[in-house]
């Protein structure tokens, strides 16, 4: 009878272990991640694209340095190409940041050329035909009386045109 009791105890122990292991799997922690992947392949004839594709998709922040009382400029690299000729650029409107009352004027340069509301040649024909990586820079023009505190917002619109000979 001792042997029978030992076998029952062993059987119950085995059943308990199986149940314990299966219940541990039922409560296992699981993580899943889903994300989307996309790509834009430009035409080989003409393109003006930021090297960092996220640049155009999110708000860009100009940092304020309280020691120098200056705003840091935004800099971003662009890949450009036009197999038929040069590339012109112009602003869609005057670029400013505003807090609803005060304005901060922005200066926009592309490939070292300052942009305004009129067409400006920003990539000459020889460079555009080969393709080139150039810099966009957006800098604040400091007000004469200094910056007034507040949260400022604005946007910059640049229009690029492919030139033909």
Automatic annotation (TrEMBL):
Keywords: Signal. The keyword Electron transport does not apply. GO terms for cellular component: pilus. The keyword Endoplasmic reticulum does not apply. Pfam families: Fimbrial_CS1 (PF04449). InterPro entries: Fimbrial_CS1-type (IPR007540). It comes from the Bacteria. Residues 1-28 form the signal peptide. This is Adhesin.
